[in-house]
Amino acid sequence: KNSNLSINSLAPPKWLQNFDNYMMNTTNTNSSLRLTLNDLHTFFNNQHISVLLSYLLFWHHTIFCLISCGSLLYNTYIQREQHVNIKND
Fold it and tell me: Please, what is the end-to-end C-alpha distance for the chain in angstroms?
């Protein structure tokens, strides 16, 4: 499976052709929903888009987990020790 991108190639890439077919089919009045779903499936079946989506989902999940766990730890330990230090003074 050839996945490298050549810039000077005359034919547009496969995902762009699929996207163009999808946009052209939605402009037609007799386009069925099944046809657009098939075009969307071929559009999202592309390697680059699936890699990009999984990458974005993965980093969104990890950053959300880090922020929530960090704020939880901050609220339970660091703020509590600050309150204890203020009361002791």
Answer: 69
Q: Is 1 exposed, middle or buried (0-12, 13-18, 19+ CB in 10 A)?
A: exposed
* Contact in structure between 23 and 43 (CB atoms under 8 Å): no
pTM confidence score: 0.29
Spatial distance between the Cα atoms of 38 and 46, rounded to a whole number of angstroms: 13
Q: Please, what's the b/e burial string for 20-37 (b: 16 or more CB within 10 A of its CB; e: otherwise)?
A: ebbeeeeeeeeeeeeebe
Distances (CA, A) of 3 to 46, 49, 54, 55, 56: 10, 12, 17, 18, 20
Residue whose token pair is 């402009």: 27
List, for residues 32-84, the tens digit of each pLDDT value: 666 667 777 777 667 777 788 888 888 888 888 888 888 888 888 877 777 66
